[in-house]
Amino acid sequence: MLGGGGMKEIVLLTGPPLNGRDEYIVEALKLAGGESYAYYHVFDYIKEVGKERGVKITRKNVLDFAISHQDLMNEIRDEAFERIREEIDGSDAEHQLVSTPSLFRWGSGSVIGFTLSNIKLLKPDRVIIILDDVLSVRRRIINDPEWFERFGENPDNIKLSTLVMWREDAINHVKTLVHELKKEGIEVRYILQFGIRHPYGVFLDLLFHEEEKPIVYLSYPMTGHEEEYYHRVRDFYDRLSEHFTVLDPGALDDWWVVAEYDNQVAKNPGIERIRIKHLLDGDEIDELDRADIEQATDILRRQLVERDFNLVDVSKAIAVYHYAEGVSAGVISEMAEAYRTLAAIYLYYPFKRRPSPFMEFYGMQNPSRRTMFKDEDEMVRAMVEEKEYWAKV
Predict the structure, then answer these.
(1) How far, in Å, CA of 72 to CA of 55, rounded?
(2) What pLDDT sits at residue 229?
(3) Residue 181: helix, strand or coil by DSSP?
(4) Measured between alpha carbons, how far apart are the two ends of the chain, in Å?
(5) Burial class (CB in 10 A: 0-12, 13-18, 19+), 227
(6) Does the predicted model carry a pTM greater than 0.85?
(7) Where are the alpha helices (DSSP H) in 184-318?
(8) Strand 317-321 versus strand 215-219 pairing type
(9) What is the mean pLDDT of residues 365-391?
(10) Are 118 and 81 in contact (CB under 8 A)?
(11) Which end of the chain is more exposed for a tag (fewer CB within 10 A), N or C?
């Protein structure tokens, strides 16, 4: 189970810029009392190495410096990773956590958070890509004076299409390098795209308790059920989280951008500006250019499917919480993906009328061959009792 570093597990925590990765990790780790871990923030090491070489690297100048002085930046970054590797080798902590951005294009150049040689040196057992939804990233830029200045202090310059491409680049960079590692015989257990709206406790379970709390994906109908999501799904999620590390596709709410756009264009085909109320942040409203959303939506829709399948692929089981009677295309697809990847499937479906034969077939892919559950608690109990018989390694 623990690869590259012997009995130590090395986890690379990465992602696109301005997705709140470091703040999220730091807040979560404040709650990690008693866990055996060491945390390395690569940028701190880059600043230190830079200083020794007579270069002052700051948050404000790092982008321009990395693009203008690429060779020197590469040397500094390589040295930073070598120091981290030495510290990992000398550390007794069970979990070694390394945080750095992935890949980021800016202006005429790109800034690389790690190269193939860096990741070969690190030999991570897992890579967790920490993501926030595009509206929150946009807001983070508006509220960050240094970044807002880079966008000419005009919210209209912050295109959603730019932000979804930042994400695309960051994820592809990780996938490409992990693929290269595999060719050289270094096995990364998984890459996980993790939404920042997951509670801190779930993130800590993911880092430290995966063995005793196996990963479970929560699947449920999303389109048109935004209100129920809050009450019913969240309650069930909390109950499931007592026993498992539960991944929630709603922890990254780009879905609402897509749904809102569809709704408003259907009502008014000539609409130019789309107003989106931010579902998770109360009454904040973003007003966005229709053409920008259209461009971003094409990529968002694909990212959404790929990300949900990624969550299913790393999960040992999926819990389908089908609180609505109409069959959801998304849910059926996730059940099929779970079946393909050998995950156990549990279906909560509390209606008299039988669901589709496909849903029934997938629903019985669990050790007790139960087609569906009408009672939530009974389903949770069955999952807890059967987890040791799940087939997926």
Answers:
(1) 10
(2) 61
(3) helix
(4) 10
(5) exposed
(6) yes
(7) 200-208, 226-228, 234-241, 254-267, 290-314
(8) parallel
(9) 94
(10) yes
(11) C
